[in-house]
Amino acid sequence: MKILLLCSSFLLLLSGCKRDPEDVPEDLIVLAMTNGQWVITQFVHNSTNKTSDFSPYKFQFYANRTVDAIKNGSVEISGTWEGNTSNQTITATFTSATDPVGLLTGVWTVTDNGWTFVEANNNAGGQTKTLRLDKQ
Question: What secondary structure letter does DSSP report for 31?
């Protein structure tokens, strides 16, 4: 997130426009998430590695805060997503999804990120989940 904030400040200075500075980081999150498809390259659920369960999936995020779980080239299920820069979280909701996609529903705390990856964890309901998303 620090990288996003630094880049947004730099872009704001270069542009000279009169945009609200608080909008810039969110715009950059949307740009980063919606530019390309993402794959899960690591997923651990309660100490069990479930990465291979996600191998047939790609995820396409959209600016309207929807996301498609694409399995072997076809949309299996759509959900919603929301990024929050102030508390460094991403909320994902896949209503009525079965596992493995259903495991993604919840509030994820971002622990590390860059333009092409996101690492996050979710500790809720007595469960511990960690994941890494990489942009293809």
Answer: H
Up-side HSE of residue 7: CA atoms within 13 Å toward CB?
A: 13
Strand ranges inside 4-136, DSSP E: 38-45, 48-49, 57-61, 66-71, 74-84, 89-93, 106-114, 117-124, 127-135
CA 94, CA 103: separation in Å to the nearest integer? 9
pLDDT per position as a tens digit, 97-116: 999 999 999 999 999 999 99
Say if CB 128 and CB 121 are below 8 A apart. Answer: yes
> Tokens standing for 118?
């996101």
R_g over Cα of the chain: 15
Burial 101-122 (b: 16+ CB within 10 A, else e): bebbbbbbebeebeeeebbbeb
Q: Which amino acid is at 134?
A: D
pTM equals 0.80
User: pLDDT by residue (tens digit) across 32-52?
Assistant: 899 999 999 999 999 999 999
